[in-house]
């Protein structure tokens, strides 16, 4: 699908608040999404352009006001399987909603995200991954609700109702 989309009105003022953002991030291909009252801009960039996030990661979300800038590693996103793409974007949107809806409450998840791997033990990562898993359970690999590609309507999970799977005993 063509990725060069006209930026919506949101993108310019949102990105203007990020002086650390490189011009290559500002002009990168991407799209916008809206979940409830939360708006975000997604940009596909080389992870070396993330700036505020480690280039070892494949996604980086920067909250701005009630919205977010989500940067995804272009190679990982475009070459990944549909499931990898979905988990990546939904995980980053989970970070965005944690900020905009839960005020970094992380859904009260604590260390339960460790069921998904050690990386997800901190509550901030545990919540984002729990959101991603809840997204897949509800919408599968359909990313149209997050502004990417075409697909049927799907009501994305409410971040206030997302919990981690119970920890293994
Ligand atoms: Zn994360």
From TrEMBL:
<keyword id="KW-0732">Signal</keyword>
<feature type="signal peptide">
    <location>
        <begin position="1"/>
        <end position="27"/>
    </location>
</feature>
<protein>
    <recommendedName>
        <fullName>Lipoprotein</fullName>
    </recommendedName>
</protein>
């Amino acid at each position: 699908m063509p990725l060069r989309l006209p930026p919506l009105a949101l993108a310019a003022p949102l990105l203007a608040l990020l002086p650390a953002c490189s011009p290559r991030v500002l002009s990168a291909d991407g799209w916008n999404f809206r979940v409830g009252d939360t708006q975000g801009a997604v940009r596909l960039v080389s992870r070396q352009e993330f700036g505020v996030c480690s280039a070892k990661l494949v996604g980086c979300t920067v909250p701005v006001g009630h919205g977010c800038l989500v940067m995804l590693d272009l190679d990982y996103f475009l070459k990944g399987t549909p499931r990898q793409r979905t988990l990546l974007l939904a995980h980053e949107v989970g970070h965005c909603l944690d900020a905009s809806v839960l005020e970094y409450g992380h859904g009260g998840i604590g260390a339960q995200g460790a069921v998904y791997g050690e990386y997800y033990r901190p509550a901030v990562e545990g919540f984002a991954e729990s959101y991603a898993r809840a997204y897949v359970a509800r919408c599968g690999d359909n990313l149209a609700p997050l502004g990417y590609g075409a697909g049927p309507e799907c009501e994305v999970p409410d971040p206030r109702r997302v919990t981690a799977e119970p920890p293994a005993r």
